[in-house]
Amino acid sequence: MRNSKHKKRILVTGGHLTPAIAIIEELHRRGDWEIMFVGRARAQEGSDSLAREMHEIPKLGVKLVTIPAGKLPKKLNRLALRAILRVPLGFLAAYMKVKRFKPDVILSFGGYVALPVALSGKLLGIPIVTHEQTVHGGLANSLIVLFADVLAVSWAESGEHFKKEVVVTGNPIREAIVKGIRKSLEVQTGDRPLLYITGGNQGAHTINSLIGKILNRLLIRFTIIHQCGMTKNGSDLRLLTQVRSSLPEALRQRYLVKDWFSAEEVAWILSQADLVISRSGANVVSELAFTGVKAILIPLPHARKNEQLNNANLLKQAGTAEVILEKNLSSAILLRTID
C-alpha cells in the first residue's frame, strides 16, 4: 500500500483533449494529485503529424506516455488492417503502463486509446470513471461504460442512451476560457469584424479547402483567424500559408492561419470574434455556448449517430447558430449564410 502522505495518483486518458486539459488544470489547483496521461503518438492513422496531446500535455507539467492503440475501422483497407493488428499491442502496452503507475483511479475521456487503458484498469482492480461529451456516446465509451464504476456525462439525456445511472457534470471547459485568461494575437483587426474559423483539434479539410477558395472575398469584409489543424499531414496548413503569401500586403495582415491556438489565445479570440465558422464537436459547441459567440456550424457528416448535427442543433435552437449540412456546403451557400 502506498504511503498515505504521498499524493493520490490519477491516470487520465482519451481522445477528447480539451476537457481532459480542463480537468488536469483543476487537479493542479487542488495540488494533491500525481497525474499521468496516456495518449497516442500520431494525430491520425497513417499520419506523420504528432497528436495534439504530444504538444499540450507536457506544457501542463504532466507525464505523457503513448501506446500503439489500434482504432476499430469502419471499412477495411491497408491502414485499417494495420490498426486492427495494433489492437492487441495497444492492450499489452496499456496493461504494463497501468500496472507500473499503480493509479488510484483512471479517468477516461473516450476514444480508441482509452479503451485498452480502461480495460487494463478493470483487470487490475482500479476504479474507472469515464466521461462522455456527447448525448449518445462514441463506440469506445459505449464499451467502457459496461465495466466503468462511474459514468459522468455532459447531458442528462445520456442516461437513457446508456441505460445506466449517470452523474451529470456538464462538459469541462478550459480554465483560460472560463476565467478570461487571454493572450492577444498580432493581427490587424482595424474596424472590420473578426471571423474565427476552426475545424476542432485536428482541423477540417473540407472547411479549409472551401475557405482557401473564397479567402480574398472574405478578407474584404473580415479580419480572419484560422485554426486549420494538421489535416492531410499538414498539407492544408502549407497550402493556406502559400495562399496568404500570395495576398496583397493589406489583406495578408488581416489573415492569421495556424494549426493550433493555445487556450489563452482561444479565450482572446472568442472575446473578440463577431462570428465563428466551425465543425460542431462537443467541445467547440460547449465553448461557444459558454461565450455566446454567433456561429455557422458545419457538422461532421459521418460522426456516430449524427452527434455533431445534434450538437449544432442545440445552438441553433438557442438562437446563436446557423447550421449548414456538408452535403449542401458550397462557396455560394456559405457566403449567403454569412450575409
CATH top level of the largest domain? Alpha Beta
Overall structural class, as computed from helix and strand content, comes to alpha/beta
Strand order of the largest sheet: 3-2-1-4-5-6-7
Would you count the extended β strands for me? 13
The figure for the number of domains is 2
Q: What do we call the CATH homologous superfamily of the largest domain?
A: Glycogen Phosphorylase B
Write down the overall geometry: globular
Order of helices and strands: EHEHEHEHEHEHEHEHEHHEHEHEHEH
What do we call the CATH topology of the largest domain? Answer: Rossmann fold
Count of helical stretches: 14
**C-alpha Rg (nearest Å):** 20 Å
Tell me the β content: 15-25%
Largest sheet: 7 strands, parallel
InterPro entries: Glyco_trans_28_C, GlycoTrans_28_N
Pfam families: Glyco_tran_28_C, Glyco_transf_28
GO biological process, one term: carbohydrate derivative biosynthetic process
Keywords: Glycosyltransferase, Membrane, Transferase, Transmembrane, Transmembrane helix
Structural features, described:
With 339 residues, the chain is an alpha/beta fold. The chain folds into two domains: 8-172, 3-Layer(aba) Sandwich (Rossmann fold), CATH 3.40.50.2000; 179-338, Glycogen Phosphorylase B (Rossmann fold, 3-Layer(aba) Sandwich). The protein is built from 14 helices and 13 strands. The protein has helices at 17-30, 52-59, 78-101, 114-123, 139-144, 158-162, 175-179, 205-221, 235-245, 249-252, 263-272, 282-291, 307-317, 331-338; strands at 8-13, 33-39, 63-66, 105-108, 128-132, 150-153, 167-168, 194-198, 223-227, 255-258, 275-278, 295-297, 321-323. It has a seven-stranded parallel sheet, sandwiched between helices. α12 (282-291) links the parallel β11 and β12. α3 (78-101) crosses α4 (114-123), α8 (205-221) packs parallel to α9 (235-245) and α12 (282-291) runs parallel beside α13. The chain is globular and about 60 Å long. The model has no long low-confidence stretch (mean pLDDT 92). InterPro entries: Glyco_trans_28_C, GlycoTrans_28_N.
